[in-house]
Amino acid sequence: MSESTAISRDLHHLPGHDLELAELVERGDKIALATLGKQIEAEDGLLLSEIAGLNPNGGNEKSTTMALSIRPCQYANLIIRVIALKISNGQAQPIIRRGTVMIDGTELDSDFAKHMWRCEVLNRLPHKTSIGSKCAMTGDCKDDPDL
Predict the structure, then answer these.
(1) Which of 105, 120, 128, 44 lies closest to 79 in space, CA to CA?
(2) N or C: which end of the chain has fewer CB within 10 A?
(3) d(C-alpha 94, C-alpha 108), whole Å
(4) Residue closest to 73 by CA, chosen among 13, 33, 133
(5) Contacts for 4-10: CB closer than 8 Å, 24+ residues apart
(6) pLDDT digits over 42-67, tens only?
(7) pLDDT tens, residue by residue, 59-91
(8) Whole-number Å distance between alpha carbons of 31 and 134
């Protein structure tokens, strides 16, 4: 099995954390956020580190092929883990605006929302996430200072 196929397979089997993360942020539950961060680091840390080095616009052919083969649901799955880790270790401070969890000073939250939106559309799922600006999809950008 190729490395690209193995990473793709691993990403399909990672459980989603978006609803759990949003609930913890809304409750302000720092202990549970820290626990979630430790769980993600223990279960997915190595995979996240490997994927972080992929570059679709350069690098070697293998790296480019792997980066371009990741689908919207997989990207959303990766980004939510990065968001959870950044919140749990204090690198990011979430803000709730109109029921949406946002992280000012970064586009990670809106990147998650874009990929999750695409994932939901492609799989004909209802739009459930409450993380990240929907600006790119709806045109409603007034609440997101980063866009």
Answers:
(1) 44
(2) N
(3) 11
(4) 13
(5) 4/62, 4/65, 4/66, 4/69, 7/47, 7/50, 7/51, 7/66, 7/70, 8/69, 8/70, 8/74, 10/47
(6) 887 777 777 766 656 666 777 677 76
(7) 677 767 776 777 888 888 888 888 888 888 888
(8) 28
